[in-house]
Structure formats: C-alpha cells, structure tokens
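lol ok so funny story. i was supposed to be doing the assay writeup but got distracted and ended up predicting the structure for this chain instead. priorities right. anyway since i did it might as well share w the group, maybe its usefull for someone
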Amino acid sequence: MNLYKISAALLLTVMISSNSNAQKKEKGFVSLFDGKTTTGWHTYGRNLAGQAWKVEGGALHLVPTGKKEDAGDLVTNKEYGNFHLKVDWKVAPGANSGILFHIKEDAAKYHQTYSTGPEVQVIDNDGHPDGKINKHRAGDLYDLVKSSSEPVKPVGEWNTAEIISNKGTLEIKLNGVTVVTTTQFDDNWKALIAGSKFATWPDFGTFTSGKISLQDHGNEVWYRNILIKEL
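and the output, tada:
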C-alpha cells in the first residue's frame, strides 16, 4: 500500500471516529464507565466498589471470589429519574445477573438493591435454572413483565440492553428490539407488583428516581459501554 492510500485510510478512520463521537454528543449521552476504573460506582451500602469487580479490556468483569467483603451489587454514585440507559452485557455459561434502576440506597432500611429497584434480567437462559421460569429470562422485566420476543445472543457474545424510563413510561430494548413496554406507578403497575414475588415489599417499584445497579448474583458477567441520557 502506498503512502497516499495509507493517508486516505487514516483520514477515513479519523472521520468515522469523529462522526461517531459527534453523534453521541448530539444525542446527549454521557458515559457512566470510563473503561479503566470503577470511578462513579460503589458497592451498595459501601463507599467503594468490591474487589470482585475487575476492570479488564474496557469492561467491568465480575469475578466472584467467594468472599463476602468482595461481593455486592455495583450502584451509581448519582441518582437518575427520567433517563435512557444503554449497556452492553455478556454472561459466562450458567450465569445470572441483572440491571436494576430507581433504587433507593438506604442499606439500613433496604438490605439489597432489589428491595426497591425493578430489574432487567441478564442471564444464560438455557444454562441457569431461573431461565426456565416465566418472566425470569433475558430481557424480561424480572418477575413483572415477560419480554415479547427473545433477541438475545448466544452465551459469551455481547448483547445491548436499553432502558428508557420517562415520566412513567417504561421501555426495554434488547439488541435494538423493543421487548417490554409498560407504565410505572399507575394501577396496572401496582397490579403487576401485587402478582409478583415483590407483593409484600411495601416500597418496591415506588421510587421515581434512584441509583442504577449492576447485579452481583455470584456468577461471572461482563458490562461495558455504559451510556446514559437524562430526559
């Protein structure tokens, strides 16, 4: 390849990169993960991120150690109300995890993130027992709403989840496909909770803003490209 072709290729790469950055900026998304550290995150109820959460290859990689002091769900330092969240995820064979939102972080009153925050399921559908349970499969609004389809990729491949929560309207996308649409905080929402495992949890799904969490379910999982736009 001659110098002209090399220069043209480099220019094209720069243009593509610039256009991509411009599109992200235009859409108003900001990164919640810098790809290098756990800055902006901490383990629920603590000040820092647990040691089980590693940063490797531009991704947050949960490597369970079996030690309680290393474990725990990651949560954002900041609370979010109306937002559009994008997260890439993949799981190891047999793994289970989740992306939770509108979490009230009060560890003395609420012992876990899921005490208050609804969850978008992240799981190996075929390899984990929960995958055989209705409303517990990848893309489901966990134990509340079954996904309308299952565009999940094979275990070990990256998926993109999107959560759009705006003034009570909730939409979940998996790999670009809308799989859940519902309304929060109305009578139907209360009925969904009443028919779920959360029925006796008085504050579950009641907060209109809160932390976002990546769940430590004791299984190996990866997250990257975590972007959010406040609406």
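The CA atoms of residues 21 and 123 lie 31 Å apart. The first strand starts at residue 30 and ends at 31.
back to the writeup now i swear
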